[in-house]
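Re-running J domain-containing protein to confirm reproducibility after the cluster update. Everything else is unchanged from the original entry.
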Amino acid sequence: MKVLLLLVGAFVLQEASAFAPGLYCGMDNCYEVLGIGREATKSEMAKEYRKLAKKWHPDRARGDEAKKEAEIKFRLIATAYETLKDDESKKDYDYMLDHPEERYYHYYRYYRRRMAPKVDIRIVIVVTVLVISIIQHISASHKFKEAIDYLSREAKYRNQAEEMAKERGLLNDGGAKGKGKKRKDKETEKEEREAILRSIIEENIDIKGGYKRPSVWDTLLCQLVLLPVTLFVYMRWWLDWTWRYTIQRHEYDDQAKLHLIRKNMKMPESQFLSLPDEKHVEFLREELWIKDKFVEWKKEKEDREKEKLAQSGRYKQIRRYMKNKGPGQISFLED
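Result of re-run:
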C-alpha cells in the first residue's frame, strides 16, 4: 500500500512539474544549465555558453568516465543554448515553465517545431511553380519542333516554302557550279537550304492545339499571375451571355453558336479552334448548336463509322476469329 502511494505521489509530482523527458533540456532547467536568468540578453547567453562549452568539452576530459560525463554535460549545454537563443523556441519554453499542467500541449508544440520544414513554404511553392512552368515551356517547344519537322518533310509545304524563298531571293535555281566545289560545300549548301525552308514554314504556318507555337503566357506561372484578369474576363463574358441570351432572348450569333456546338461536343477550346474553318462552317450549316440536331448528327456519324468499320478487311478477319475460336485460343503449338 505504501509503495502504491509513493508511485501515485511521484506521478502527481511529475504532472505538476514543467519538465519532462524528451522535451528541451529534459528534467533540467535550461536557464540553470547555462547559469542565467530569463532576462539575460543574447550576448550574455552566448558568453556563458562559450565558457561552459570550453569547460565541459570532451577533448579536455581525462579518462573514460570523465569523458562520458563531459559528453553528457556538453550535449545538455548545447541543447540549452539552442533552445534559448531562438526567440520562438524560447517563447515556447517559457510558456512551458509558466503552464506545467499543459503537458501534452507542450509535446505537440515541441515536436511540431522540430518536424516543421526549415524552408519557407512560400519559397517552396514559388520554386515548384517555376520548375513546372519551365518544363511546360520546354515540352511545348519540343512538340512545336516535331510539328515543323513533319511539315518540312511534306511536299505540299516544301513547294510553297521554295516558291516564297525564290520570290525573296533566298534561293537560286541551281545554275552552273564551279568544278572546285567540295562535298563539304554541297552539304553546307543543303543545310542552309533546309534551314531557309524550315524558317519560312515556321514563319507562315498557323498551328493550333497541342502543337501550337510555344508561349510563356501558356505556362502555369503566367496563368497564376493572370488569374484575376482571367476571372474578370470570364465573369464579364458570363454576365453578357446571361443578359443577351437568357434575359433578353436574343438570337445566337455565329460565335455563340460555335460555343454551344463545342459544349455539345465536350471538346476543349484549344482542340475546337484547331479544327479547319471548313469544319466550323459545316457545324453551323448542320445547326449543331441545337441539342436535338446534334444528337441526330452524332448518331448518324457513329452509324457511318460502324458501317465503314464493318467493311474493313481487318475488322472482318477479327470478327471471323472471334466467331470461330474466341479469345484465349491463341497458341504457339502446331496443330
